[in-house]
Structures are given as C-alpha cells and as structure tokens.
Amino acid sequence: MSLPQHQADVEHNGNGVGVNEHNKGRGMFGVHVPHVPMAIPKKPEKPPMSLQVKNHVVAMIGEYVGTVLFLMFAFGGTNVALAPETAVTSGTTAGDQSTIQTGNTSNLLYISLAFGFSLTVSAWIFFRVSGGLFNPAVSLGMALVGVLTPLRACLLVVVQILGGMTAAGIVQALTPGPLNVRTTLSPGTSVSRGLFIEMFLTTWLMLAILFLAAEKHKATFIAPVGIGIALFMAEMWGVYYTGGSLNPARSFGPSVADHQFNGYDWIYWVGPALGATLASGFYLLLKWFEYETVLGPETDQPQKPSGQPGAPAAQGTAQTPASQHPGLEQTGLGTFTDAPVDQSQDARLDRIESILLRMSSNTSNGNGPTRFPRESMSTVVGEGSPKHAIGQMPASPTSPTQPTPL
Fold first, then answer.
1. Which residues pair with 9 in a beta bridge?
2. CB-based contact 198:242 (threshold 8 Å)
3. Cα torsion for 167, 69, 108, 192, to the nearest 10°?
4. In CA terms, which of 169, 314, 329, 337 is 20 to 30 Å from 276?
C-alpha cells in the first residue's frame, strides 16, 4: 500500500512530466527564475579568536592600571591618616576606675574619604574599558550574575591582585617610614565578628554595583558616584573594627609589601566572597520576580494623574481634535511651533481656506454679514475627513438652510 500523494504531485502535463516539475524554477509568464534556497537563521557567531584575545588583554590592562591607581591613592591617604604626627585629636578619657581610649574619628573620616573618592574617580575613568571593578570579590559577583564570563573573571582577579601588590609597593617606596595600611582586627573584635562585618559591608558595596552599574537605566552614567559613596559609608564602619578591607587585593597587597601575615587573614578573602555571593543571590531573586514591573518602565516625563492639566487621556476615551493635531489647540490660527513642519503647513492652509470661505459667504449675499456656527477642527483637518476646496465646503449640520444674520 502506497502512501497518499499530494494533488500537486499527481498532476502531469501531456508529456508525462509533472506539472510542478515542469514549472519548477519558472516564475510569472514562464520566465526562468533561478532557485534560491531559503535562508536558515544561524546562531550568532562568536568573534574571531584574535579579537577575543585582544579584548581580554585590553580589559586586563585597564583593570590592572585602574586597581593600581585606586589603591595607590587610597593607601596614600590611609598612610597619612595613621602617621603618628597626625594623631592630634585622639586622647584618653578618665573614668572612675580605668582609662578608656577613644577612637580617632578624624582619622577614620580621612581614610573613608580617601577610599570613597579614589574609587569614584578610578571607576569613572575605567568604567568603559574593563568595567572598573578593582576587586576580586566584585569580579566573583559579576560572574555569578552572568555579566562576566568565568574566563574574563579569572583573568581580572589575577591582575587585580597584582595591582594591589604594585600599589602597596609604590606607596612604600615613595613615602618615608613604614607602610601602615595593613588591615587588622581591632582589640576586642573576634575573628567571627570580623568575618561577618566584612561579609555585610561587601554585600552593601556589591548591591550598589549591581543595581547602579550592571543594571542599565537612566542613572547608569553616574553609577561611579553611588558606588564611591557606598564604599565611603562601608569604610566609616569597617575601618575601626576590621580595617575596612571589602577587597582581597586591598589586604593582600600591603601584607606582601610588609612581609607580615596574620593567622586570620583568610577572613579578608572569605568575607568579601560571601558578601558578593549574598548580594548576587538577592539581585537574581529580584530579577526572577521581575521587579521592573512594580513601578513600570522609566519615562522621560513623570506621569500626571488624570484630571489635571496635561494629564494623558484615560484609556478608552476619545481624544479631542487638539490632542490629535498638535499646535491646533489655540483659537484662531493657533500655534504651530510644536507640530512638524509639513503637518503645520497643511493645517495652516486648511484653516486659511476655511476663513476665506466664511468671508466670501458673508459678503456674497445682500442681507449683510452673516455668521456661521464654528466647525470643529476635526471637520477641517481631522484624520480621515476629506479636505474640501473653497466653494465646496458643506453646510454646517446645525445651521438652518438660510444663514442667521448677526
């Protein structure tokens, strides 16, 4: 039993050749048309390997130089703040039975400002080159949310650590005295406390980076300002207790330059990594819930509530002729500055024709001037309405057969 054939397949001409075979490759009037196979959409091709390698190299160079500049100025400011000669506001407060050492808030503010402003400027410079991350923990977070590929993230982590070491070496070579910028726990701060402090401070910084820089919106161009302020606020808390690392490269570089390592230095790696992971998970959760639909898409102008002047018409209501034709909302000839040039000229000519028609009608009869009821603009220039020439304008439906004298 043979399979059923399509009707077009069983039709033949007189020569025994199938009609479809006979006409295959022939277009209208029997003209031969070459057969062009249907184009099958292809997957987007990856850029050439040479271009990929070049992009990786450029990103690594930008990230290395940016990390060096960021940490060099931050280390320099910290070294100035912690020099013994600048400790003018620190002192002791006498108690009943003991003496309490107070924190030097001037130094803490100085260090926080040095890190915050240094990150702001450096990230703004290298934002379009490598992303302006300067932090292995941030690179980890960007890879978790899919902004960076794993290969690019690993390459950036390597140059960020090298940048931290270079910055610490430059500051140690240029400034007299020992390099006093290592991150250490303050007396009374346990290792577990330091770990969670570093974790939550890095979460704060990572959230600022994800929602201001990774998430594209109208304020993305000033994202480095918000990120720098976030680091400034984190340093205001973290410097006193943990040294305010939030960055493995920031802690590892000075330790290498000073040849000193503490037994708890691992918290400056694990804490920021946990913070970046926590922030990335929260970001992905909000993206899964499509948080953009809560307030709606961004608009150039704020939405005005209905009922106020300039508010958009409610859905389902008919628009007025003035809203259909911009620039015709005024009486008389109106203003045409806001309407396109071609539309405003047509509307002006139609309006002039209507005025001339009325003037000719008023002076043509001998009963004196007459007044016709005013027609709506939709009748004159409305969408879909025919444009009448002078002398062919229809009579107003509301007017009597004879014009009413004034």
1. none
2. yes
3. -60
4. 169
The fold of 50-85+104-293 is: Glycerol uptake facilitator protein (1.20.1080)
Structure tokens at 264: 């708890």
CA nearest to 133, candidates 221, 65, 235: 65
Report helix angle 191-209 to 267-288, nearest 10: 40
Contact yes or no for 142/133 (Cβ under 8 A): yes
DSSP string, 82-131: TSGGG--S--EEE-SS-EEEPP-HHHHHHHHHHHHHHHHHHHHHHTTTT-
Instruction: For the beta carbon of residue 88, count every other beta carbon within 10 angstroms.
Output: 9
Measured distance between the N- and C-terminal CA atoms of the chain, rounded to whole angstroms: 94
How far is CA 275 from each of CA 137, 196, 205, rounded to the nearest angstrom?
8, 9, 9
Cα–Cα distance, 74 to 69 (Å, whole number) = 8
pLDDT in tens, 300-355: 555 554 444 444 444 444 444 444 444 444 433 334 344 444 556 777 788 888 88
AA letter at 58: V
Q: Has this prediction a pTM greater than 0.90?
A: no
- The residue assigned the tokens 């680091």 is 231
